[in-house]
Task: structure prediction
Amino acid sequence: MSGRHLPADHSRGDEATLGGYMAVHDRPAAFEGKDTLSYSVSIECEPTGKHDAPWGGYILFIRWGHGEPKVTGHLETEFIAYGASEAEARSIVGALPLIEVKVLLDALIRDKAPAPGLPWWEAMNSER
Result:
C-alpha cells in the first residue's frame, strides 16, 4: 500500500503547531521517539466529570514497529487542556507547538522505559 501525497495548504493553519500541522498537511503529525521508534499523534478529548471544565484534551501517541508498518503500542498524556466543550479542549491541545509535543513524547518514553538491566522477559511483562 503506498501513501498519498497531497500538497500542503498553508492557508489552513500554522504548521508549527500540532493542530495546524494536521490541518495544513491533512495527516497526523509524526515523530521519532528517543527510543528510535516512530509515533503518530492524535488529539483526543473525553468528558472530565467536572462542572467547571467538562471536557479534557490529551495526546495519544501511536507507536509503530521497525520494518513492516505495524502498530506495536501507544502512549498517552494526562489531560493537558480543559474546556467548556470538546471543540475548545481540542483547540487548546491543537495550539501546542510541535516542539512541546515532542518533549511530551520523549518524557512519556522515558517514564515508561523498563529499569536498566532488567532481563528481557521481565521487561516484556512490565509493559502489560
In short: Residues 98-112 form the longest helix (15 residues). The CA atoms of residues 14 and 20 lie 5 Å apart. The mean pLDDT is 89. The longest strand covers residues 38-47.
